[in-house]
Amino acid sequence: MVRYRNAIIIMLTLLMLVLSACSKTEEGTKSAAEPAKAAEESATQTIEHVKGTAVIPKKIERMVVMSAAYIDHMLTIGEKPAGVNVEVRYGGEYLPYLADQLAGVPTVGSADNPNLEAILQIDPDVIIIENRTAENTYEQLEKIAPTIVLGNEEWLDYGDDTTYWTQDLLTIAGMYDKVDLAKEKIAELEKQTEQLKAKVEQQEYRKLAYLRVREKNLQIYAAKGHPTNTLLYHDLGFVPSSVTPAEKREDLSMEKIGDIDADYIVLEVDPNAHDYLNNMHASSLWKKVPAVVTNQVYDTDSFWLFKGWGFIGRTEILKEIEGMIQ
Q: pTM to 2 decimals?
């Protein structure tokens, strides 16, 4: 009987030892897994965007961007893209005002028609695109790398917000933990803009028309609806001409040229528009426009519509405007 009882005690003791060992093993496994999980979480970041959320590396090595604005934003915070889009109508090369800082960066097609093979070869950590690109190729790009759609759901629908161009800059800066630097750049630009606005408002006559000569017609840009427009009329204090539309750019027939009562004209000319430009210059109505009479027609480099979206571009516009009003 004693021997039987001792055997039971020994078996119970062994069972307790086994259970204790299993418990320690589970705890050890759990404690080992927790740091690994924490390390994995700390190595990534989650970004909210138009299409939902994207989990991307905390430390981004290769970012492909499909917008002139996003290229500007990256360069503004001291980061170089791993791949960039091109603008077909300007020869399929880097935009000139960003070219020096992009030397050697691969090009990956246009925003409307990304070169998926070229992007795949870069093996990006992240791809950033506009909503217009997302309409056709978001799913394909998402298969290559986490793809973030910036801007808003309705292309260019920003209402009366005149600072919307800064939103994507701050988002991209956040991905690199450089929000403070981005805010410094924005504040620097605001100061420069205020200083130039004071000079503009000293002008006795400051009506302005922003025109674009196209292959077969002339267009006039609105007082808002685009960051370049709001920079001119809202931030810098130019007064819209009487033919400047409020919301969206409009066609302006040759017969209506005489209605332009602008003291300053900003003139953008498409590469294929020189025949129309020559006809316009020959028009007697054009020659009577106040800005033409006083020689206050400023020919831009045709990139203001891109420049208005970023710190680097807007800084160049300010320099050009300052030269214009001297």
A: 0.84
